[in-house]
Write a structure and sequence with these properties.
The chain is an alpha/beta fold. The protein is built from 15 helices and 10 strands. Strand 5, helix 9 and strand 6 form a beta-alpha-beta unit.
Amino acid sequence: MPLPISFEPPAFESRTRRWREQRWLVDAVIQTAGIDWDQPRTMAFAGPCGVEALGDFHGVTARIHKFSDMHREYAAAARRRVAKAEAFEAASRTVAARESWFIAAQLWACARWPVFEINALHREYDAQLRHAYTRFAALAQRPVIRVEIPFGNTALPAWLHLPHVPAPGERCACVVQIPGMDNNKEQSVALYGDKLLERGFAVLAVDGPGQAESVVRGIHVTPTNHADAGRAIFDWLAQRSEIDSTRVGLRGVSFGSFFALQMAAAVGTRCAGAVSAFVAHEPGLGTLFGHASPTFKVRFMMMAGYEDEDAFDSFVRGFDATTFAPELRSPVLFQAGEDDELSPLAYTERLFARITAPKRLVVYEGHKHVLRGPGSVATGESPDHLYADWLAERFAGAPMESTREWISMSGQATVESVGGSR
């Protein structure tokens, strides 16, 4: 009797030259350095959950020894957490249930991540993630609303988080959160103590074109379609009674740092301020796709709907923020690491120079792409408090001087005026 499974390798295993040639190196690095070889994945996904999730994530870490272990071990951990959530919910233990559903959603997101094609397994993990997060939203202590934003002949999936139940006639400022290529909208807002919600702002967490749930729907990324997405999002927010459409900002992280700037350029003065953090500003992303972990290119080809590598290499040259930087009309905040290994800082400096709107560049000495952990991020002002308070100032209409800032390893800030204010 034949086995009820297929031993055919996933199609993405042959998608790029570097992945074929360096696949064995990825396994070797995971064996020696662990699952955070390419980015601080454990911190990024466990962090929004709080300490309750540490056991789940560290337990997975101990069981993963090669790349193909990742999806199955995260899925197994997610199923264990789902069982807890269902038991808590059956016992009417609401707080415990919602925390477990939230943690399960993050684990399902991690299970989905290494499946670099939209196949049955990817769709299963995506459906499980949506179910877990929907259960969290139903039990949340504040409004968490599933929304669909019209986009051409389809819709972008999103979650609208409100800081509290609005009073009659109350309108909140809102921040549109755009995740990176390896992140998702469910990861964008912390379970408790979110920096934006704590300041009284609503958050619209969106999977843009090519990202997470959107690519499962067949919405692929192009060099320009986040501009269309930005216009669609701002038009949708303008119709929401809970949102003050005169106080809407943007924040994009990692590849989202490119997407958010493109959106801000497209919507003009409708954006109160745009934050571009953990930067991806190199035109054509040569460092990211040619020198960093080969997983990045394999994944982004899925996001763009490409199987032919040469065609993709031509396509990706169109990702160049300098082409729309002069069109930015809203204030901009850049937050970058001095030693960013995915997008060298020189490209951010060049982009910064092309922006004529009020602008602020904050560079953390010694830090790489992700501004987390020890060093200048810990000794200096927290990047999260900095961006959240900067947005609060923009919503309040505070004047802004254009500056370039350096946060040293000792935490000292050196500020240089670059002229212009608003």
